[in-house]
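Exercise 7.
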Amino acid sequence: MGKLQLFEIYLSNSRVIYSPGEPLTGTVNLRLGAALPYRAIRVTCTGSCGVSSKANDTSWTVEEAYFNSTLSLADKGTLSPGEHAFPFQFLLPTTAPTSFEGPFGKIVHQLRAVIDTPRFSKDHKCSRIFYILSPLNLNSLPDIEVWPWEQPNEATTTKKFSYKLVKSGSVILTASTDLRGYVVGQVVQLRADIENQSGKDTGPVVASLLQKVSYKAKRWIYDLRTIAEVEGSGVKAWKRAEWREQILVPALPQSVLPGCSLIHIDYFIQVSLKAPEATVNLPLFIGNIAVNCPPLSPGLSLSGLPPPLVPTAPPEDLDMAACGPCPMVSVSLPTKSHSQQQQQSTRPFSYTPGLSFPETRPEAEPGPDDDSPAPTRPPLCLSTGATVPYFAEGPVVPMPTASDLILPPEYSSWGYPYAEAPPSYEQSCSSASSGLSNGN
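Solution. The predicted structure, written as tokens, is:
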């Protein structure tokens, strides 16, 4: 077995997740089969971010350090055979960013312990990762609440409809959500209004929950993923259709990572028509503390919003002699299909004061070195970028379903990052307002 039989870092109460500004306490435990001379025993607490231009490459192109503290636990001596425990405590900085791990970079917080042995002897080292979560309070974000009597989270675009180079009318696409910010487990109430002011049927309408992670290496790298997608039917000629859908927010990394300048996270609801090609983006925030407004039921989620105007005549550029008068008819648009997991595989759990989830933690199991219980933790899921506590257990198989709630499929196999990313929050807001007057 050798002299050193056990060398590990133990965190008090087996904690792995901490908040900024909290004390981090624990012990460095050793078990020796024979006497071990040493020059020093030290433990270091670090926090840093690394970004690479290649996926899954730990040779960072750019790095950023947040804190680095070292404690000396013992100075020069000899450890006798048996077990030894050296207690330590660090105070985590209030500015420490939330832990994150993605294909092009990560924010890592860890402890490293070292036994500095005499000359010509090999130093002994061990390490332990811990996680920091800086909760994002959605109420602290400007204009996060959406009320019926105020401006909703809405975007509109108008596209000309042409068939064989002949203009046949236009299509107006308007999309809105009940809120601008959500927490894990909340349901996004989505509404889309499509006015087909033409004599030709439109293509299907598609709504997607998109995640954009931006990594600042030598250049900005954008990792764009579709978290959930739902497709509705097309709209017949001279009809106005209303489409209502729901998307369940899965366990995802929070929007923005305060304190980190190398990694940024944004979310969008993108609603688009396939023919004519028309797209609107609704920026969203995903946080940890919900917006202080009553939850809306699916049937009443957007009933307070004023209904879109229904035109009484076709547009001026339409050949009236060819098609004759066509009154606008309102219909309800059905859903054709959407991506759905067979079961929700992510299991969020309570990890900071004031935060709680209905799911329960997995039961503890004995640790590898003794009979004391230790928390069981599934591996950190990297499919959509991960901040604690985004964990996944077991395989996830996408399947079609008629359920009202949409859960995300598994995206463990992904393509190359997009060179172009969706617009920023500010750009989306400005384009939403300008789209009302844009006729192209």
